[in-house]
Design goal:
- The chain is α/β, with parallel strands linked by helices.
- The protein has a single domain, classed as Periplasmic binding protein-like II (D-Maltodextrin-Binding Protein, domain 2, 3-Layer(aba) Sandwich).
- Helices cover 44% and strands 21% of the residues.
- The protein has helices spanning 2-17, 33-40, 62-72, 76-88, 101-110, and strands at 20-24, 46-47, 50-51, 53-57, 96-98, 114-119, 128-132.
- The strands form two sheets. It has a five-stranded mixed sheet with strand order 5-4-6-1-7, with helices on both faces. The chain has a two-stranded antiparallel ribbon with strand order 2-3.
- The chain starts with a helix and ends with a strand.
- Residues 1-17 have low confidence and may be disordered.
Length: 133
């Protein structure tokens, strides 16, 4: 019984520590963190000749908060404020928001140039992993 309890706790700790990974359409090459930051801030719209279209998970989701912290070094409030100003001065619109990891996977696989992030636990064989932290 003690071994089972230990195994369950270990699994829960491992799952809770899982991060988010950046996935992309097959047409999108591997990316480094600096390029990801520029894409999600609207400063880069093309990578290696491919027009990119980033997507987010819905505001307030745990994976979105993890992504913002790990990849962009921002929190939700700072990121939203950034895009409020950019939109106001006519410098673009924030990335589209999708409701779930399944929606992100479907969109990314079916849209050339698309990229988004999902929880590491949702990664399936055949996905194009662009960056993992």
């Amino acid at each position: 019984m003690r071994k089972l309890l230990t195994a369950c706790l270990l699994f829960l700790c491992t799952h809770a520590a899982a991060g988010v990974v950046l996935i992309g359409h097959a047409s999108v090459p591997r990316l480094d963190e600096a390029v990801v930051q520029k894409i999600y801030s609207g400063k880069v719209v093309e990578v290696a000749g491919v027009s990119v279209a980033a997507v987010h998970l819905r505001s307030g989701s745990a994976q979105r908060n993890q992504f913002l912290q790990a990849y962009l070094n921002q929190d939700e409030e700072k990121y939203t404020a950034y895009w409020t100003v950019r939109r106001y001065i006519g410098k673009g619109v924030p990335p589209r928001e999708l409701a779930s990891a399944a929606d992100v996977i479907s969109y990314v696989q079916g849209t050339p140039g698309a990229l988004g992030y999902i929880d590491e636990a949702d990664v399936k064989p055949g996905l194009n992993i662009l960056l993992r932290k």
